[in-house]
Amino acid sequence: xxxxxxxxxxxxxxxxxxxxxxxxxxxxxxxxxxxxxxxxxxxxxxxxxxxxxxxxxxxxxxxxxxxxxxxxxxxxxx
Length: 78
Prior knowledge:
mainly alpha
């Protein structure tokens, strides 16, 4: 499921995103954030991060730099 999402996001960035121009309040843009989130965290967690980011993206948002959280690996017993 991860690779069809990545393909869809790349197609969106190539064909649809240029029609909107530079209107995103955040850096990286929402589509770049979603692509990185799905690539780093997988389809389920990456999609959840992308949906949360889209919910924060509205005209009254302050915007700014909002990177994708780093992937943490669970530690096994010491």
